[in-house]
Amino acid sequence: MINRIKEIKKELGSELIILAHHYQSDEIVEAADFVGDSLKLAQYAEKNKLAKYIVFCGVHFMAETADILTEDNQIVVMPDISAGCDMADMADISQTEVAWQKITEKLGSDIMPVTYINSKADIKAFCGRYGGTTVTSSNALKVVEWGLKQKNRIFFLPDQNLGRNTAVDLGIGLDEVAVWNPVSETLEYDGDMNNIKIILWKGYCYVHHNIDIKKVERLKKLPEFKIIVHPECPYEIASIADFKGSTEYIINKVKSSEKGSSWAIGTEFNLVSRIKKMYPDRNIEIIDQNSKCKDMGLTSAESLLNVLEDILKGNLSKRICVDKDIAKDAKKALDTMLSLSV
Ligand code: 13P
Ligand code: SF4
Asked: Which of 62, 72, 92, 312 has the CA that lies 20 to 30 A from 123?
């Protein structure tokens, strides 16, 4: 299969580009032309005007983002179109509209909607329509800081953990953070509402939310270990970690560390096991062996090969195509983020 993938890549030449997220399996990472975190993948998709076919090995919101940022004559396909993101699925547009109406009724309209890139295209479009933007785990601090200079408050979707960790990094107190519960349609907040700076959507990534905190606390007692986690981890974990950052940040931190150093890493299993193999002269501990993203695991050499064969046959049934009106507003939100991330 790998040999046939190579043959097709040769045959299609610069017409084809294979993009992969760091959580993909080793075989996919090896077959890809470019591997990155969400920000780098979005930037790469936006810049590459040459490829007619962009094969996105990741999850649905990433392929949607690539489709929004590429030209109309560029075609984005996924090897497995059922690869979604449970966190992105925790916020849909009708819930978001209800939330916006109720929150602005309570707090006024001096609020900027900001969505994590791990969200559906219509949520990004909602943010674009209301003068907001998107963030990734690598630029959340900078973008939210910028947002708070434009507006008094931020409505942050859908990851409460990234939102809370970012707020605290910006010096915002936990008592200034409210949580919007989309199921009960209520604002969870005890204090004086005038003090609210950030309203978090009550969503989370199960892969990071469920990392075993007891294991982190045990590792914290071993002075040789530096703890590094993804900011999708709950505040209770992120606040005791030595470092936190995007997948790319985590890789670079280990890469630039001293030989023999010890790292306990809290993020998706595929990536941590790859880092372990890449740096055998560092002592790498996977904080939680259960941190596996079922959707990232759906793409295989077989599904990649199948979609490439489909391209050769002119079968584009796995194309990801965002509705034009939604794409237009979503692009506004993405463009704002990209212009803040150069
Ligand atoms: P980053 O690669 O941007 O850190 O995102 C992690 C993630 O959860 C993607 O789904
Ligand atoms: Fe979504 Fe979490 Fe999987 Fe990333 S790791 S795709 S945030 S469920």
From this structure: 72
Q: Is residue 51 part of a domain?
A: yes
pLDDT, one tens digit per residue, over 271-307 is: 999 999 999 999 999 999 999 999 999 999 999 999 9
Q: What is the pLDDT of residues 177-199, one digit of tens each?
A: 999 999 999 999 999 999 999 99
Nearest ligand atom owner, CA of 88: 2
Which atom of ligand 2 is least distant from the CA of 232?
Answer: 7
- Ligand 2 centroid – CA 10 distance (Å): 32
**119 Cβ inside 6 Å of ligand 1:** no
Determine if the pTM surpasses 0.90: yes
Structural domain range at position 184: 88-205
With beta carbons less than 8 A apart as the criterion, state whether 298 and 317 touch. no
Q: Whose CA is nearest to atom 5 of ligand 2?
A: 293
- 30 CA from centroid of ligand 1 (Å): 19
Collapsing DSSP to helix, strand or coil, 244 comes out as strand
pLDDT at res. 342: 85
Ligand 1 lined by 118 (C-beta under 6 Å):
yes
Q: How many structural domains compose the chain?
A: 3
Rounded (10°) angle between helices 93-107 and 121-129: 30
Q: Over pLDDT 90: what percentage of the chain?
A: 100
Using only the alpha carbons of the chain, give its radius of gyration. Answer: 20
Tell me the backbone φ, ψ of residue 232, rounded to 5 degrees: -80, -5
User: Looking at the structure, do residues 278 and 228 belong to the same domain, yes or no?
Assistant: yes
Q: Kindly provide the b/e burial profile for residues 203-219, where b requires at least 16 CB atoms within 10 angstroms of the residue's own CB.
A: bbbebbbebebebbeeb
